[in-house]
Amino acid sequence: MSVSFIRRVASPKKALTAAALAAATAGMALTAAPAQAAPSTASSAQAVAHKMIPDAAQYNAFSKIVEHESGWNPAATNSSSGAYGLVQALPGSKMSSAGSDWKTNPATQIKWGLDYMNSRYGSPAKAWSFWQANGWY
Prior knowledge:
Signal peptide: 1-37
Order of helices and strands: HHHHHH
Domain Transglycosylase SLT: 59-126
Protein name: Transglycosylase SLT domain-containing protein
Distance between the termini: 58 Å
Shape: globular
Helix content: 40-55%
Pfam families: SLT
Keywords: Signal
Radius of gyration: 23 Å
């Protein structure tokens, strides 16, 4: 069965039916694969942060900031300011000092964010205190 044939079929349901019919005609069987849950980007980023920040109080403070800033979405972009990533760096390209993969790698963003919080505030807990008082950090 050609791809162009499937493209000509009007709806996805018709395309699936046509593909199943063609497969059956060719003596093949189409089977549904079991559903696989995609790994959560948020949970994997949180696991990385836990490894990088073993102290529970510091991790919890870091986590609260990230939850408020990006919801643990490493591709979060603030449409008005352009802040980017888990920690909403402004500009996002500042995170390149932690690695060239800063746009896509949560570990790089976490490293940069942790370094930022430690250098500017002394710790993630102190950064969280500042965030609570000001609504930003």
